[in-house]
Amino acid sequence: MAEAHQAVAFQFTITPEGIDLQLSYQALNQIYLSGLRSWKKRVSRMRNSVIKGVYPASPSSWLFVVIATLVTMYMHSDPSMGLIQCGCGSSLVFSTLLWLSLILALRFCLKLLLSYHQWMFERHGQISNTTKVWVTLVRLFSSRKPLLYSYQTSLPHLPVPAIKDTLSRYLESVRPLLSDVEFKQMTELASQFESTLGNRLQRYLKLKALWATNYVSDWWEEYVYLRSRSPIMVNSNYYGMDFLYVTPTPLQAARAGNTITALLLYRRKVNREELKPVGRVPGTVIPLCAAQCERMFNTTRTPGAETDVLQHWQDSEFVAVYHNGRYFRLWVYCAGRLLSPREIEYQIQRILDDSSPPQPGEEKLGALTAGDRIPWSQMRKQYFTSGVNKRSLDVIEKAAFFVTLDDEEQGMRGEDPVKNLDCYAKSLLHGKCYDRWFDKSFSIVIYKNGKNGLNAEHSWADAPTVAHLWEYTLATDAFQLGYTEDGHCKGQVDRSLPHPQRLVWDIPSEVQAQVQRSLAVAQALADDVDCHVFPFRDFGKGRIKKLRISPDAFIQISLQLAYYRDRGGFCLTYEASMTRLFREGRTETVRSCSNESCDFVKALEGGEAEEQCRRLFQLASEKHQNLYRLAMTGAGIDRHLFCLYVVSKYLGVESSFLKQVLSEPWRLSTSQTPVQQMELFDLKNHPDFISLGGGFGPVADDGYGVSYIIVGEDMINFHVSSKYSCSETVSKIFISLVMELCCLFSVPFSYYSLEI
Fold it and tell me: Which residues cross the membrane (predicted)?
């Protein structure tokens, strides 16, 4: 009752002498401090808006232009060529207009500079004079310290490739997968498409590119993610893992305290725009689009009958917590200040010590987010739009993020660490199918033994954005916040903090019945996933670079050979590449199965001479790098064809060519998780603090999902997924083939005489 009393700012009673007003100064002080935090954030946002609005100039440069104008007038010179009549007012107006014109000119020049991508195609150590001049100019224009979103208006728009070029690259990509007859038919279809419907669709697409910020991203988000009516668990969401060898503390509440604090410190950096909006490349730094950061926190995906909607709130002072079948609201701010890690640990421990049972229907309610989208949409619309259910659902959806206090232990532990690592991956990917809220932008999982992990919804952003967040969180947790000798969080505790609030539900039998149906769908999907995680420590990119081969190309060629030996043929291969060199860019597909990679595999399997295999291996590597560069610079294949297909649907016309292209299955879906912030801590002096990266479910029912992270110089972590229901795919066998081939490839071309 004490907390409830303090929640009332004032009370009054009517007496014969009049009204007796009783003010609670503590409560009024809390309101004042919370409001002060809100106004500080508004002022900060306004300040940042001005700074990034005039970038690459500075707000102070306006004063310089004004003074320069007044000085020239004092010297009886008219810089306005007659536009300034007289007086300081007209001089200020002219100076301001001149200043704005200079800003636009600078921004236009910076945009032209950032449209230059030829540097990506130059050989290492062979930089052209043009690129050297470009690097100098980019550094000159970027000399001021940029905010997170400073470059947004200066980034170039994603170009629409010529339809002839896209079709030519497409036919080249499918040549090794088709017989001569099939390829001739596909060539005829492509030619017919280009000469008839293709050019018409292309004109509409160019019109959109002129009008929209990015001609791909909005349609990609809507049609690939939000309009999907199948479960997003396993099919879309992905996961990130904790350190492999180290658990900073075995105390669940303490790990939760530091993890939540680190995430909120990252959110503060995002809100203040203190993150660097650049990606590192040899010799310089270039800006990457930061638009995906905007919806990282306080965001949820809400279901709809035909399409889902992403909802984002400006701020949230609490997180939603799930433990032992109950949902809680945990306030992480008090009187306008962020709680200390020790205070959050204290609050989390209160939740862990709460022995109250779940309310009827509460325990497995999260299964609605794991099953099909239409039933969840119907239940939400009918039973969660008013009353206590709406208020409780609002808490979950408006929370900064979702936290699960898992009652299991996970990690590479026990007598069978390999199997336990696979269980760890499956737990993060789907859990019990009801103890995660899969609609949240991301959910944090804290296990009983102190291990943690992350499950992320895919529609709002791609994995590199979440990986950046997770890298920061793990490093801040272990090296900045730290723990006491007995494993607790550091900091002081205000023990008068109000208890975390239990969410109240009134879940009717109809909803409970649908929860069971959704759970059955999700459980069948989860049980079918075969996950295998393998930390490969024989070597890493250090040895690969000595072979003068791209580490990514090395792994991709290994995957092609492993698939050939596993399945006896080649398949359409998807490798994710980013297009964040362009405004609002997301991803493009690198079709890793090329003519060159197939020629190498066939030569190696056919017992060709060592010199021939050496040459083909080098050609395959160079081809892969070129494909990756084309994808990054807007000359990819699949996003262009996807958008042409969307236009055809809007026009109500059918294209047999596009229909066939879009229906081709990706039996090998791959992705590299980039390590982006090596400066967070010294990996050489702390080699055990290695993150395992993360993974995702298989895209095709008869295919593999492969994620890998190249950590430091001496380690590569692999995550492979497939489906038990397909007798031809076994994750463990596939990754063992990859490992064998990687080991053979690492010996410079002496493997040709070896037999496997």
Answer: 54-76
